[in-house]
Amino acid sequence: NSKTGGHVVFENVEFAYPEREVPVLRGASFEAKPGQVVGLIGTTGCGKSTALKLLERFYDVSGGRILLDGTDIRKYKSSWLRLQIATVAQEPKLLPLTIRDNLAFGCPTEPSTKQIMDACATANIAELLADKAKFPEGLRTKMSAIQNISGGEKQRLAIARAILADPPILLLDEATSALDEESQEKVQGALNELMKGRTTLVIAHRLSTLKSADKIIAFDQGKVVEEGTHEDLLARPESLYAKLWKKQVGSAKAEAPMQPSALEQAPSAVLAGGELRETLTGLSTSTKLAMLRARIAEAPSDAPLADKHAILRIVDA
Q: Does Nuclease show up as a keyword for this record (predicted)?
């Protein structure tokens, strides 16, 4: 019944699928410390999804090793290992059972109705389950009886299932890529709750969802070619991450988040002056506005109103 601490290390991992000769991973090395959120990025076929499959031991490595809390994962029982990990994928696997049985699937012990409903509330799905038109028998409704269940609703059911399983390690494989903006917002909120306190490996097509990751690992042709935070990698215009970001979002420079030092440490009088102006140089107007308004909201209540007005005037500079 013991749980892993969630410390994951890939050491020079080599792998080729049995039916293919070309290796997918070529000496890939990276680390995810307990509780860290680590993004995996790269173009299609670079090996990032394969890395997740290897961690769950759907395949074994051809070379190198994967360590969990310092032990080669091949030394653990597969049944125990898979209880340590929950996956939320782009197309969640929902079984032809009742909603309750789907949610309890993968739990080490049978969850109570209260635990199930608490998980559904965290996953932003409880209100939907109360809709008798869609779920006529609530948790006892069979999946086959549900009409027009959306991708976002399936995702939130999968998230509730992962919350109930309570694994130390979470794998998110393009979990929001197929959703519209409104659905993504609800699902992302549920994912943020789910990720708290867990080692999380995230594959995301929308790079904006990785901005707050503790670390981003870039794969290219089966190798790890760079790693760092969102800010670190955007500061290197030639990095793979910066190039992919620029394609998706526009100018990496214009969208790079401000370094916090000048805004967080300077007194209000300085905030209206040249130091702040220099900090904001090169940012887009919309980014300046968002950050300056946030800074004003955090300003001491006794800060002079003139200082706050001066801060906003910098936007037009």
A: no
